[in-house]
Write a structure and sequence with these properties.
The complex is a heterodimer of chains A (242) and B (137). Chain A is mainly alpha-helical and 242 residues long. Chain A has helices spanning 3-7, 12-16, 27-56, 64-67, 81-105, 109-139, 173-206, 208-212, 216-241, and strands at 145-151, 154-160. Chain A is built from nine helices and two strands, in the order H-H-H-H-H-H-E-E-H-H-H. Chain A is elongated and about 75 Å long. Chain B contains four helices and no strands.
Chain lengths: 242, 137
C-alpha cells in the first residue's frame, strides 16, 4: 500500500514542477480529506463547548453512568454496557470497511461486495441503537424528578420524566441539549454514511468500479466512514466515560 | 484512460494477494488493539467513576487512550500513515494548531466561566428541590 510513496520520485523539482500531484493522490481523495478536516473542526468546537459548560455547572452535571443504564431484554441496570456495545459495532463496521478497501486494491469484486454489505449492516445497527438510546433518555426513569417554576404568578411544583431541550431529570438541562445536538449531529453523519455506502454498494454490484479499473470510490467513502468512527471515539470518551 | 498525460493515482494503491495478506493481518491487529482499549476503558469507568481519588488519573488516562485509538484509526484505517509526508502534514498541522488554540481558550476563559454564573439562582433552586439525587460530585 505504501509502494507509491517510495517508487515515485520525491525531489522537490519533480514534485512541484507540474504535471503530477505533489501529494501523490487524486483530486477526489484530497478533497475528501479537506472536507473531513473541516468537519473535524466543527466537532472539536462542539466538544469544547460541551467541556466548557460542563466545567461551569460541574456540581449539577449528571454522571453518564447514572443516565445510560439500559440494556435490551434486560430489566436491571448495567452502566455503559449498551454504549460500549455501540462503540464496538462502529469499530467493527470500520474494520469491515477497511477490508472492503483492501479487497478493492486486489480488484476482488466479491470481497468488496461482502465487506461493504457488512459495513452497511453495522451502520444500520448503530443508527438504530442511537434511536433506542434517545428513546430511553427522552422517556427517563419511573420516579422522575421534581421541578418548580412560576405559572400565572404562583410557584408550581410538578414531577416530570426524562429529558428534552428544556428540562432534564438527571441534572442540568444543558447536558440534554448537548447530548441531543452532538449525538444527533454524529448520528446524522452515520445516517448519511449509510446512505452513501448503499449508493456505492449498488455501484460495486453493477461493476461500475470494476470496469473503471480501480475501486477508489470505495476508498473515498471509506475515509468518510472511518471519520464517523473517529468522531464517535471522542464522543464516547467525553460524553460517556469522563 | 484515453488521455495519457493524466496519471491515475488510484492505481498506485493496488497490490497482489500476498501483500493483501499482510495488510489484512495488520487490520485485524488494530481491531484487537481498539477492542482491548475500549473494554479496558469501560471497565475502568465502571470500577472507578465514583472513586474521588481516582478522578484525575481516570480523566487523563481516558484522554490518552482516546488519542491512541484515534491515532490507529487515522494512520491505519484511513491510510494516512501510508501517504506521503507532505500530505500528512497538510492535514495534521492545521488541526494541531486549532487544538492548541482551543486548549488555550479553555484554560484562560474557564476561570471567567466559573465565576460568572448567571444561572446560579436556577441551579440553587434545582438543587434545593431535587435534593442530592441530581448532584453527584
Amino acid at each position: 500500500m505504501s509502494a507509491h510513496a517510495t517508487t515515485k520520485p520525491t525531489d522537490v523539482k519533480t514534485l512541484w514542477g507540474g504535471g503530477t500531484s505533489p501529494f501523490g493522490i487524486s483530486y477526489g481523495k484530497m478533497m475528501m480529506w479537506f472536507f473531513l478536516m473541516s468537519d473535524a473542526f466543527t466537532f472539536s468546537g462542539l466538544l469544547t463547548a460541551y467541556g466548557f459548560m460542563r466545567h461551569k455547572y460541574h456540581d449539577v452535571w449528571p454522571v453518564a453512568g447514572d443516565v445510560f443504564t439500559h440494556f435490551p431484554f434486560y430489566n436491571g441496570h448495567i452502566e455503559l454496557a449498551y454504549v460500549a456495545f455501540m462503540t464496538f459495532i462502529l469499530i467493527a463496521s470500520s474494520v469491515t470497511m477497511v477490508l472492503a478497501v483492501e479487497a478493492g486494491h486486489r480488484m476482488d469484486k466479491k470481497g468488496v461486495t461482502i465487506w461493504m454489505f457488512l459495513t452497511i449492516i453495522g451502520g444500520a445497527i448503530f443508527v438504530g441503537s442511537q434511536a433506542w438510546e434517545w428513546y430511553h433518555f427522552i422517556h427517563g426513569t419511573e420516579h422522575g424528578a421534581v421541578r418548580t417554576f412560576i405559572k400565572d404568578g404562583a410557584w408550581v411544583t410538578e414531577v416530570f420524566h426524562g429529558a428534552n431541550l428544556k428540562v432534564n431529570e438527571y441534572g442540568h438541562p444543558l447536558f440534554a441539549d448537548f447530548f441531543f445536538f452532538i449525538t444527533g449531529f454524529h448520528g446524522f453523519h452515520v445516517f448519511s454514511g449509510v446512505v452513501i455506502n448503499i449508493i456505492i454498494f449498488i455501484g460495486v454490484i453493477n461493476g461500475t468500479y470494476h470496469k473503471r479499473g480501480h475501486y477508489e470510490m470505495v476508498e473515498k467513502t471509506g475515509l468518510y466512514w472511518h471519520f464517523v468512527d473517529l468522531v464517535w471515539v471522542f464522543v464516547f470518551t467525553f460524553f460517556y466515560l469522563l | 484512460m484515453e488521455r495519457d498525460d493524466i496519471y491515475e493515482y488510484s492505481l498506485d494503491t493496488h497490490h497482489n494477494e500476498e501483500e493483501g495478506k499482510k495488510v489484512r493481518k495488520k487490520i485485524y491487529q488494530v481491531l484487537g488493539i481498539l477492542s482491548a482499549v475500549t473494554i479496558f476503558e469501560v471497565g475502568m469507568g465502571m470500577q472507578f467513576s465514583r472513586v474521588e481519588s481516582m478522578q484525575e488519573i481516570l480523566k487523563y488516562s481516558f484522554i490518552f487512550l482516546t488519542l491512541v485509538k484515534a491515532g490507529y484509526i487515522v494512520m491505519v484505517f484511513m491510510h494516512l500513515g501510508d501517504e506521503r509526508k507532505n500530505l500528512r502534514w497538510v492535514i495534521l498541522a492545521p488541526y494541531l494548531v486549532l487544538i492548541g488554540y482551543l486548549i488555550f481558550i479553555c484554560l484562560t476563559e474557564a476561570v471567567y466561566a466559573g465565576e460568572n454564573r448567571a444561572w446560579d439562582a436556577v441551579v440553587e433552586a434545582f438543587k434545593a428541590v431535587t435534593g442530592s439525587g441530581a448532584a453527584h460530585h
